Amino acid sequence: MKAAVKKTIEKYGSDKYRLMDVLIEIQQENGYISKEAIAQIAEEYGMSEVDVEQTVSFYHFLSQKPTGKYSIYLNNSAVANMMGRADVAATFQKELGIKFGDVTPDGRAGLFETSCIGMNDQEPAAIINNHIFTRLTPFRVKEICRDIKEGKEVSEMFVQDWGDGENRSDLVHSVVSNNIRKIGPVLERTFKVGQAIEKITKMKPEEVIDEVKKSNMRGRGGAGFPTGLKWEFCRNAAGEKKYIFCNADEGEPGTFKDRVILTERPRLLFEGMVIAGYAVGATEGIVYVRYEYKYLEKHLEDILQKAREVNYLGKNILGKEGFDFDIRIQFGAGAYVCGEESALIESAEGKRGEPRDRPPFPVEKGYHDMPTVVNNVETLCSVVKVILNGGDWYKSLGTHESTGTKLLSISGDCKFPGVYEVVWGFSVNDILDMVGANKEDVMAVQVGGPSGAIITTNEFNRILGYEDLATGGSLIIIGKQRDILNDIVLNFMDFFISESCGSCSTCRIVPTLMRNKLNKILNARGVRQDLDDLHEWGKILKASRCGLGQTAGNPILSSLKNFPDLYEEKIQKNKTFDSGFDLNIAVKESAKATGRIPNV
Amino acid sequence: MSKPIIATTSLAGCFGCHMSILDIDDRILELFELVEFNKSPIDDIKKFTKKCDIGLIEGGCCNSENVHVLKDFREHCKILISLGECAIMGGLPAMRNGIPIRECLEEAYLNSPTVVANDERIIPNDPELPMILDKVFPCHEVVKIDYFLPGCPPRADLIWEALVALISGDEMNLPYEIVKFD
After folding, report:
1. Whether pLDDT at B163 is above 90
2. CATH of A485-568, one of 1.20.1440.230, 1.25.40.20, 1.10.3210.10, 1.20.81.30
3. How many domains is chain B partitioned into structurally?
4. What count of other Cβ atoms lies within 10 Å of the Cβ of residue A550?
5. Residue B145 falls inside a structural domain
6. Which residues in chain B have their CB less than 8 angstroms from residue A527's CB?
7. Which pLDDT tens digit goes with each residue over A370-390?
8. pLDDT tens for residues A257-309?
9. Would you say A346 and A354 are in contact if contact means Cβ atoms under 8 Å apart?
């Protein structure tokens, strides 16, 4: 054990900034990270034990207690629930004889909940020892549990055929489907690797930036910062080394487009990183991939290796003196907040994924305090097309404010969930037609995931784009049969509560208070004052440091605005005050513990 | 006009807030000129004998009796004031809120090193005892509270100023010194 830990540490250059990699490897080897391992890591790195422990305790997929030989993580996103997760979850618990959060007494299997794993178009889904299981049914769960009891290898448990495209390749072998429903300039198939790299070797870095600026491209992660400008800031920032980060930590429930790019177009992505590196003068690129996509690791490493062999990566790329750039993959370990760029950098440095105070922004002081560009997967892919076809061509697509195309991750109540590449400027109605949703049956659409907005039918003519309805690309279609407050809003609030990094008291406390109020309203104990409180308390969240905290009240605020009747019909009209307190419920656990019959 | 009537009680508190009431020193004589006390540890009246104007609540609710007393106060008092940290936020007793109640009881009655005479390993369960609540609740999560006087305990001057303002109907004098806590 001691020798193994030491070997892992040495494998990552005895560099304490690679703590994440070390912890992930120990977790995978042993199913947990023991106190002894933490002590040893601390000693080797000359850190205190609590410094190591605080990183371990931050991430969902790192555990200080054994997680079982088979660690089952069942996704608990709203769409999973819409697709029948409840029965699947109940079957897992019944078959294994344990509750969520527990491990079977023989240490064989552990059952855990996890936030959206990026499979919303094929729910209910689970991760078992890094293998993805999709479209689970109670029957399928029984088979899996039987296989677990028999001690089968996870890779041998699959009964359906591998998914489409690269999911079939020997290095992936997963049952995940790409569900690419519409192809545009980014996803198109004729892309020839290396063309754009060849082209930029004949350009000056400034010319590359100018071309990107000319395209008016804005970051595809959601915030929409102009890409060319970001690169220029980084190029002009002082620092002996510069970094390009690709943010592949898509954790917003309902988003899965980056997973499809990583599966089908990783060469395009890596080429975009090389271009970015050349433009800003960076020599190292890091792709920060969410842990949920660990099953793609070998596939991605293989492509990087092949790129090195033909000198698309490495030193003096394509013979150009001084054009050095290489890429490594950094896995996260399960934390939505790491999608925030400064939290992502902290995490890549082996720390808790807590957002930094800004300024300074990463373009000035990022990874290792050096100028760093953090771009979304889709942004970096689009850049390649800008270089190949020109900024003017790119600008000719889409609308004035929103140029180019957008990859949409569409899930929920529709016939064809999946990934669609559309030109900006579509209305929500257009999208519903495209994905085979029967408009008469649609009650609402969640645009941009939990942090976005839930819109009603009378807003379906709104246009997707930065000038109207901005989105990172997630659209969840909600049918009339759904209970918005119970099925969607409550689930989203639980998501934000469990994903808060806990750094700002606003985000740590207010969402819980708001969720409790919502529960009170759902329990028919709400009064008008509660609705007013929700409005007012939601404002306090704006004081949080990062986007997670600032938007953590949106599920309630947005549904309160667009579906006020759902709340109005549940509050008590004849009362002005109700604390919601119920003495019988308040003594339930203690009565059990003392063996008393409640006599309140 | 008859004098306003005040009632006070200490729920899951340490009586520190009541000590702070006494800390108004000789102004207590003035207070007795201004108001009449009903149910309160200060005059040892155990039960409400009439409707009151102001109720001062120290401490949050940690058991069923606290809840009944608090509801009784709400019924009898026109204005209820949460007095001090425990009433407002649960305070020190609420530190147990992060621990399951079973663990708390086992630690207190079975496993703690100071448990010496519980050979039968009983967690107190006599029906006469109030039921422990699973968590400690601040008062406003149980009944409507009209005002909050912060502090641990709230300073005597703050209590005095608040009562005088309520009784006289004047605006409350709140200089920085009486509400600063560091």
Report:
1. yes
2. 1.20.1440.230
3. 1
4. 17
5. yes
6. none
7. 999 999 999 999 999 999 999
8. 999 999 999 999 999 999 999 999 999 999 999 999 999 999 999 999 999 99
9. yes
In 3D space, the residue among A398, A460, A397 whose CA is nearest the CA of residue A425 turns out to be: A398
Structure tokens at B13: 């508190």
Which DSSP category does B78 fall into? E
Tokens of B56: 């001062």
CATH code of the domain made up of A195-395: 3.40.50.11540
Interface of B with A (CB under 8 A): 64, 67, 100-102, 105-106, 123-125, 127, 131-135, 137, 140-144
Tokens of B124: 């107190």
Indicate yes or no: CB of B64 within 8 angstroms of CB of A591.
Answer: no
Per-residue DSSP letter, A162 = P
Q: How many CB atoms lie within 10 A of CB A323?
A: 20
| Stretch 519-578 of chain A: residues touching chain B, C-beta under 8 Å | 577
Domain ranges of chain A: 2-58, 70-160, 195-395, 405-482, 485-568
Helix (H) or strand (E) holding A24: helix A19-30
- Give, in order, the Cα–Cα distances in Å from A6 to each of A2, A12, A54, A65: 6, 10, 20, 21
A182 and A416 Cβ atoms separated by less than 8 Å: no
Are the Cβ atoms of B101 and A593 closer than 8 angstroms? yes
Closest CA of chain B from A594, distance in Å: 6
Whether omega for the bond prior to residue A359 falls within 30 degrees of 0, making it cis, is yes
The three state secondary structure string of A423-455 is: ECCCEHHHHHHHCCCCHHHEEEEEECCCCCEEE
Tell me the two tokens of residue A98: 């344990």
How far apart are the C-alpha atoms of A141 and A147, rounded to whole Å?
10
Q: Which of A241, A190, A233, A183 is nearest to A212 (CA)?
A: A233
Nearest to A232 by CA among A248, A253, A211: A211
Cα–Cα distance, B60 to B79 (Å, whole number): 17
Residues of A in contact with B144 (CB under 8 A): 577, 579
- Tokens standing for A126? 């689970």
Strands (E) located in A438-576:
442-447, 453-456, 474-479
A173 touches A162 (CB < 8 A):
yes
Torsional sign, CA B12, B15, B18, B23: negative
ipTM of the complex: 0.89
Partner-chain contact A587 B102, CB within 8 Å:
no
Beta bridge partners of B149: B83
Residue A369 near residue A345, CB atoms below 8 Å = no
Q: Is the pLDDT of residue B120 over 90?
A: no
Contacts of A587 in chain B (CB under 8 A): 64, 131-134
Distance from CA of A23 to the nearest CA of B (A): 28
Provide the token pair at A217.
């491209």
* Rounded Cα distance, B20 and B38, in Å: 19
- Other Cβ atoms less than 10 A from the Cβ of A513: the count is 14
